[in-house]
Structure formats: C-alpha cells, structure tokens
Amino acid sequence: MSEYRVQFEVFEGPLDLLLHLVKKQEVDIYQVNLLRIATEFVTYIEQMRELDLEIAGEFVVMAATLLYIKSRELLPVDKQVAVAVEDEDTEDPRWELIRRLVEYKKFKDAAARLQERESLMDSIYEHRPARPELTAPEPVRREAASVFDLVNAVATILKRYNERTDVREIQADPYTVSEKIDYLRQLSVGRPRFPFSELFASARSRAEVVVTFLALLELIRMKLFIAVQTEQFGEIEVALAPTPPPGSVPTPSESAADGTIPVDSLPPQSPPADIVEPTPARAPDQLPEANPVGSDTETPQTA
Amino acid sequence: MELKSILEVLLFTSQKPLSPTELRDVLNRAADEEGAEEHVKALRKTPPEDIVAALETLASEHDAAARSYRLVCVAGSWQFVTQPEYAPWLRSFLGVKARPSRLSAPALETLAIIAYRQPITRAEIEQIRGVAVDGVMGTLKERNLVVEAGRADVIGRPMQFATGPAFLEYFGLPNLDGLPAADELRRIPVQRPEALLTVDNHLATAPAEPTQQELPVDTVDPSVNAPEATVEVPPAEPPAPAS
Amino acid sequence: MELKSILEVLLFTSQKPLSPTELRDVLNRAADEEGAEEHVKALRKTPPEDIVAALETLASEHDAAARSYRLVCVAGSWQFVTQPEYAPWLRSFLGVKARPSRLSAPALETLAIIAYRQPITRAEIEQIRGVAVDGVMGTLKERNLVVEAGRADVIGRPMQFATGPAFLEYFGLPNLDGLPAADELRRIPVQRPEALLTVDNHLATAPAEPTQQELPVDTVDPSVNAPEATVEVPPAEPPAPAS
Predict the structure, then answer these.
(1) Alpha-carbon gap: B87 to the closest alpha carbon of chain A (Å)
(2) Is residue A1 predicted with pLDDT exceeding 60?
(3) Alpha-helix runs per DSSP H in C95-220
(4) Is residue C174 included in any domain, yes or no?
(5) Binding-site residues on chain B for chain C (CB distance < 8 A)
(6) Domain range holding C159?
(7) Partners for C (CB, 8 Å, 3+ pairs)?
(8) Using a CB-CB distance cutoff of 8 angstroms, which residues of chain C are in contact with residue B92?
C-alpha cells in the first residue's frame, strides 16, 4: 500500500502522470497511443480510489477528458465527427491535450535546468576580498616608508655608536669616509648601476663595511648617487645620480613603475617615484651625543 | 592604461558585485580627484556601452585563460567567482556556502513558467501546470523570487506575476535572456501535426487530412500550419532588477 | 585537477595571505572530509616543497599574463595584490585614507635595532640608542611593527622584542633576510669600554650602567670583553605571520 502511495505522490499533477505514461510508450509525444494512455490513466485513478487516497480534482477532470477522447476514438472512422474548419470554438480534444503535454514537458525540462543551476550555485564561491588593504597593498603600504628609511636609521645608529666608542680605536681605524667616497666614485666610473651588496664585497673588516656604508650615504646625501629599488622586492641598486640642472631636483618621471610615494612629504616637485632617496644622513658634527634625537617621547638616559 | 584593466582591478578588489554604472562612477570620481593625472582624467564620462564592451572582453579573456576563477555577470552586476570543480576544497576552507533551502519540484516548475512567460496570471500558470499553485506561489513570493507585476488588461483584471529581485541572483544568471533555451520557451508551442484524425483506433495521432482550425492563437497564417510552426510571444520586458 | 589551480582558488577566495603550511592544511582537511573523492584524497600530505613550487609557477604565470593583479609572497605568505599603477582608481574606489603618519626618526631607529638584532630586550635597545624608548615602543607595538617575543634567559628575565606581523608588509620585504645588508648590519661592531661588563654572550650590547643586580652569576666571559669583540646576532627566526 505504501508503495502505491509513493508512486502516486511523485506526480505533480495529471499532466505529470500523463507524461510518465507517454514516456513508458517510448514514442514521440505526437505519435503516442492516446487510447492506451487513457486506459492506463483511468486505471491509476481507480487504484487510487481503491486505496482511499485523496484524488485531486485535476485528476478527475483529466480522466473525464481522456474518457471523452477514448469514446470518440472508438467510433468507426466514418462516424467520427469532422470538426468544422470554420468553427474556431471547437477544439479537437486530442490536439488540445497533446499541445498541453508538449508545453508542460518543456517547462518541466526548463525547471530541471533551473534545478541544475540551483545546485551548481552551491559550488560557486564569490571572490570577496576581506579588506581593501589586503588586495591593494601598494597604494597604502608603500607610501609611508621604504627600506631606505630603515637603512638610514641603522647608519645613524652606527655613526653615533662609533662616536661613543673608544676614541683611540677610531684613530686607529685605517679607513676613512672620504677615502671610501673616492673609492665608490671610482667604482662607479663606466658603470651607471651596481648592486648594493657589491659595495661590501671587498671589505676586509666590519669597520670597513661601516665606513663604506657611511660613505655611500654621504654620496647619496650629496645627490651624487641614488639608491634605486625598481620593484618591490627587488635588489637595491646604487646608481650615479642623473646630473640635474643646477639647483633643481630630479624631474618627476612618467615611468612611476611601482607607484611608490616618496618618503618625505611630497614637495611640489617630487623625485621620480621609483627612486626613493633616503633622508640625508646626519653629518657627524651635527650629532650631539647627549641628546641624539629630538623626540618628546624620549628622555635622555644616564650614560 | 586600458579601460578593461582598470575595470578588472576594481572588480578584483570589490567586496560586492559592481554594475557598469557603479564602475563608471568610480572612473568619474578618480578623474575628479584633486591632482588626478591626465590618463586618469581621460576616463571621465566613459560611455556605458564602452564599459559593458570592456567587461565582456575581460570575461572572454578570463574564460580563455581557463583559470580557477572567472568573471561573470549576475543580475547585471559583474563579479569574480570560482569554478565549481574546486568546491571540495573551498567547502573545507570557507565552509559550506550559505544558501537558502532548495526549491521543491512544484516550486521550480511554477517559477520556470513565470520566468519564461512573465508577466503571467495565476490562472495561466495553473492552465499550464494542470494543478493549483497557491502553496508554491506563497513560497516564491516570500523568497522574492516572484513579485506581483500589475494587473492584466482582461476581464476581472487578475494580478500578474513576474520574477523578483532574488531570481537572477539565486540562479546566477546575468539577465532574463540568460535563461536556458529562452527563445524556445517564450513561444507558445502550437506545433500541430497536419491532422489528428485517426485512421486506426490504436494510432491516435496519425496524420490524415489537413485542418487548421484549432490553432489556439488568432494570428494564424495558413502558411504557418507546417508541423514546426510556432507562434512567438514577444519576450516579456524583464522586471526592473532589484538594486 | 592541478595542484596549482587548487592553491590559486584558495588564495583567490582567502581573506588573508596564506602560507604554504596553511595551504597544505586545507588540502589535508579536504582530503579527510567524509566522502571526499579520490582526486581530493590524492592531495593529502602534499609535500611542502611541491606546494611552494606550485605557488612559484602560479606567480610566474600571473606575471606573464600581465593582468592588473599578481600573486606575491610577503612575509612567507602568498596573496593576490593589485598592480600599483591602478592606485588612482583604487584610492577613490576604496576611499583609502593616507596611512597613519610615517614613523618618526626615533621610532625608525628603534625599529631598525629590533629588526637587525631581534630578539632584543628594551635595556639593550636603550643601550644602543642611548635614550629611553618607552614612548616609541608603545607606538611600534600598537602598530604591530613590534611584538613581544618571550623573555630573555638572564636575571630578571626581561621581555624581549621582535619585529611584528606588520613589519615586513610595512617595508614591502619578503622576509627578514630581505633586509638591506642584513649580513653586514647584523654584525655592527660593538666595542666595549673596559668598564662595562656583558650580561650574556648573546646580547648585542653591554648594559649601560652595570649594576650588581644585573650581573649574572656565571656568564661573564672575559674574552667578550676584548676591544675588538663583536657579537653576532644569529639571523632571527621570522616571527609567525599574522593570522
């Protein structure tokens, strides 16, 4: 009994049941044997009734239509009523039924395609970046600082540190900043660019590294050299500064390749955006030991 | 800088789908920004059709690249979405997508009829489905998949229905023309064998003599009487998409 | 389904950068899901080096495609970022405010010391800088440029500091080895006046005012006291990426 119930309940309506019966015949819908379908449909209704299932009104109406068609079909051909061509109100019930079945089938198929899309949508995830910073890092991330700030800060510390250390050691230091400046300028002859790391390749001691580094910063401060980082994670290169017209700053470059905004607040004429100049290193004589960096938040520590 | 690349980067960073109008607004706003460069200013007042064309080019480029995501238009707005075959990983990573419960088969049938034949009255829907649709219509309206769309200009002035703002989004469709087989289903099929008079009791529909009287639509041209003849119902105006 | 496409789609939908480890976790989780299909299970325990290789391939593919965005690795985690030349439009679209004011010179110096010498105690920083750093340390911690990194293994067990999750992003560095002249600058020569005693061999510097309390019982190594002595700071482990 429950099997029957399941069987009946899957049909959305009489048209659905009819389609099911048509499908069982395995012929084109236009070629279907309506007589047989009518018999089968009525049999279903009878079974439902026997099982005390509630029969929707639509099924009863459809059964009546089918019985009418069946009764017409059973007449000999010459007794069949030829529908008057001019009588537009009279529908051939067979054609009407098939037309409805065809139409219904199309929408049932369309519903199935919608259902496919419905379930497909469960598997499609939208691209939803969380916050602007994550997807647009450059415009926000690089405006505030560059690695040169950091390097420069280190240089300042180094310089101050050297001053604090034993005076005799400094005097004994075989390297001087001015020597290294000459060395770097020679190094750059005929080579417009070289990697930052190469500067230190020949250094024989830590002290030499530090002095070379200070010399480089001095050259940058004098606008003779520039430090260039052409891409965000690229190696820093040192290059000869383009010789600008006297008294001018470098002209803004159209090829602002990385969108970097210079470190310092933008002057009316900003330097090339892909070239970040570090803040000039403090000259040694400007560096008071006792109060190294003017900052309100800091208090000199007793040394 | 190409327009399409700019649109792409905007869609790439957007937290919601963007319509061509919204995209144009961004171009205009950037152009009006103080100190905007020439190439930014140049895109002020980009014609909407240029934007749509650029978006379509972009979408084809992404389709051709066959990556794990693509650019699609849903309900007139553009967004990047993932390809469905990566769902197993995304489900573990992002969790099961929050989606409204699936529609029942009767609801889907009813919705399909409304989608292709809108605006349509309840009586017309029931005529096609062969059953009453009160229950499912309630569900569909509640979920904004279906909305009321004015009264039909016939006796009794019955209410007509159309697809609602949630419809295109729910199925991920760009517009109503994006419905599968839209052309075919918008037409009322009147394919009519030349005759339905049987020559044999067991062959209900074998052709016999041509008749032409039962064509349900009154615009019948005798020449249209061929088996494949159809009468076109002009595509309904899509309802204004929800904003 | 190619590994790189799966990684791509995960990065594409992620709301934060993902490390190879996190990506591998997703692959494993998806493989362990009940009813996972064979091709999903097959990626369980993908070797980390395969993941990194796939990510690198992906990044080159995206670079070659020259779109408005690309895939990059920052601080060991991978993410899609936009190309900088679209900043004018993105700024007006996202309403990006200028970043909080750039770091002051004292803050930068302090940060530089921490970057090259991490982990490092506040006393050590102050020793190098010669001033107290309470104010700037607050700022740096607030902006996640500096984080606490456990306690030093010396008397008093002072807190140590390391660069925080925002540090590499702030400077656009791939990792701590990307610090300019890292090798050289990690070994800033420290010449110790004879009066000063080192607290610990691993400390970058000697304390400014050695007091009895600070003197460790047994770690004073006379050799460290030599004028030319330098203390190498081993390259610090990069801090765990922010999650």
Answers:
(1) 5
(2) no
(3) 105-117, 122-129, 134-142, 165-171, 182-185
(4) yes
(5) 1, 5-6, 8-10, 12-14, 26-27, 29-30, 33, 36-37, 40, 65, 67-69, 80, 82-83, 85-86, 88-94
(6) 105-186
(7) A, B
(8) 26, 29-30, 33
Task: Examine residue B224 and state whether it is found in any structural domain, yes or no.
Answer: yes
* Last residue of one domain, picked from the residues C49, C83, C117: C83
* Measured distance CA(C146)–CA(C156) in Å, rounded: 21
Closest CA to B135 of B110, B152, B117, B113: B110
Q: Quick one: closest CA in C to B93, which residue? A: C26
**pTM beyond 0.90, yes or no:** no
Is the preceding omega at residue C119 within 30 degrees of 0, hence cis?
Answer: yes
The answer to whether residue B97 is domain-embedded is no
Q: Look at residue C242 and tell me if it is in a domain.
A: no
Q: Does residue A73 belong to the interface with chain C, where contact is any CB pair within 8 Å?
A: no
Whether residue C214 sits in one domain with residue C179: no
Instruction: Kindly identify which residue of chain A lies nearest to residue C70, measuring between CA atoms.
Output: A135
Is B205 near chain A, with CB under 8 Å? yes
Long-range CB contacts for residues B18-24, cutoff 8 Å, separation at least 24: B18/B77, B18/B78, B18/B79, B19/B76, B19/B77, B19/B78, B20/B48, B20/B51, B20/B52, B20/B55, B20/B76, B20/B78, B21/B48, B22/B77, B23/B51, B23/B55, B23/B78, B24/B48, B24/B51
Token reading at B199: 């020559």
Does the CB of C230 have a partner CB in chain A at under 8 Å? yes
Range of weakest confidence among A115-119, A185-189, A299-303, C217-221: C217-221
| B19/B45 same-domain check | yes
CB contact under 8 A, B185 and A30: no
- Please identify every stretch of chain C with a pLDDT value under 50, giving residue numbers as ranges: 97-99, 189-243
Residue A75 to residue A91: CA distance in whole angstroms? 18
CB B196 within 8 A of CB B205: yes
Interface residue of C9, C15, C18, C29 to substitute, partner B, most B CBs within 10 Å: C9
Interface pTM, i.e. ipTM = 0.60
Which chain C residues are Cβ-neighbours of A142 within 8 angstroms?
Answer: 84, 172
Nearest to A146 among C111, C171, C179 (CB): C171
Query: C98 to each of A71, B189, C91, C92, how far by Cα in Å?
Result: 86, 62, 9, 12
Report the residue of chain C nearest A254, measured CA to CA. C85
For B185, nearest residue in chain A (alpha carbons) = A106
CA distances for B15 relative to A131, C16, C188, C238, angstroms:
8, 14, 47, 31
Percent of chain B with pLDDT over 70: 75
Question: Could you tell me the CATH number of the domain that includes residue B144?
Answer: 1.10.10.10
Please state the domain count of chain B: 3
Residue from C11, C94, C231 to probe the interface with A (highest A Cβ count within 10 Å): C94
Helices C105-117 and C122-129 meet at what angle, rounded to 10? 120
Residues in chain B closer than 8 A to A256 (CB atoms) = none
Alpha-carbon separation of residue C191 from A170, C197, C205, C206, C221 (angstroms)? 11, 11, 9, 9, 15
What φ, ψ does residue C107 adopt, rounded to 5°? -65, -40
Mean pLDDT by 10 residues, chain B (243 residues): 92 91 92 86 92 96 94 94 94 85 92 93 92 91 93 91 92 86 63 43 39 34 37 45 43
Let me know whether C174 and C193 are in one domain. Answer: no
Together in a domain, C178 and C109? yes
Task: Write down which residue in B27, B51, B83 finishes a domain.
Answer: B83
